[in-house]
Amino acid sequence: MSIGPANVSERAQQPPVLAISTVIFALRPDPGHGAPTLWLPLVRRTRQPFKDLWALPGGPLSAAESLQDAAARTLQETTGLQPSYHEQLYAFGGLDRSPAQRVVSIAYWALVRPDEAALARETENVGWFRADGLERLAFDHNQIVDYALWRLRNKVEYGSIAYDLLGPKFTLAQVREVYEAVLGRKLDPANFRRHLRATPDIEETDEYLQGGRHRPPRLYRYTGAAAQRNNGPLSQSG
Amino acid sequence: MSIGPANVSERAQQPPVLAISTVIFALRPDPGHGAPTLWLPLVRRTRQPFKDLWALPGGPLSAAESLQDAAARTLQETTGLQPSYHEQLYAFGGLDRSPAQRVVSIAYWALVRPDEAALARETENVGWFRADGLERLAFDHNQIVDYALWRLRNKVEYGSIAYDLLGPKFTLAQVREVYEAVLGRKLDPANFRRHLRATPDIEETDEYLQGGRHRPPRLYRYTGAAAQRNNGPLSQSG
Fold first, then answer.
1. Predicted ipTM?
2. How far apart are alpha carbons A108 and A24 in whole angstroms?
3. What pLDDT was estimated at residue A236?
């Protein structure tokens, strides 16, 4: 979209508008092979600009709401869900990201557990999509999703964020499936089990996965501190 | 500072204002023992709120300037310096961080090499301070500095950002001094040399540190990709 000179000078006189956008990831089974894959909810735009394109949940920041509260509200309104992990991602403030006015979007990202994600609302204007291979989204939302995926991959490789995509108890194979879904490649099961057993942050339970197998796999539990995964001195604040 | 009811309702009707703040770190010798320590430049407030307190360089975001450009401009105006590393830190948007109006500050942080930092302007209203043990700053700027320090410590421990605080050539002891200044503790020199020699990202030069010692130490050079240190898919954009 090109912007004429009149429009440019008009924009230059208006202060930038602040908005919140939220990238919400959850694991859902691939409809074909059934393995867990990364999905996210999107909202269909019902007006211009970008009418009928899908966009990240969000909206303008109101004067009386903290950034964190506004992000939590958009997540709740879109999906009805409480996230297991919720963190500020980045402020996107390019000059041309919105055609009519200058909008600076502070993006948040959230992880939702699969048992929660299964309960998520899906309506005519709210849909869940696979995170890889998205169509063209409104504004610069493809770039925001790409950046959130990059952060998620980093956090999974160097942190213990994988457990925020799982329920409270899980098998070692389920942890591997999270890594595979996030990193987009298969991992060697024996190596991965060995690596995982050596980490101090998970412990065996006395329970086994239900489901009538001959040798049901053991369930484990995450015991690491949630604070380690988060934003250091900002973990407790908005 | 307490805000009366009239003030609250007035604030609730005004959209939040956007500002940029920049935390700029450089190494400077400790005036006592001479070892490199972390310093940052601050600007004295010449009007209310927080008149006469020191604050981070920054100011309101103008409509025609990208976030990155606004951050680079405040850095240039305050110190006259070009940073070796410059990255978005976090958006601070608490409701009560500024008494008169709601201000959301997008904070950036930058690293400046010591040869550059030595050239930095110091005036009546711009001073350099040690990053540890700051007095009470304006707004929530102590919290912003604490968070930038936390990010810097993380990046030094898990990345190769230490080289952004050094000149193009350096001794292994100078790298250790960066780590010691950032982490705030002494490291074992022999272990550290061994660890550093094993990293693929630095290489020997044929030069030695000038200065008339009997056995002058060898100079090294950083050869890793700058992009690895940066913000992944956002390294090239604003």
1. 0.79
2. 8
3. 43
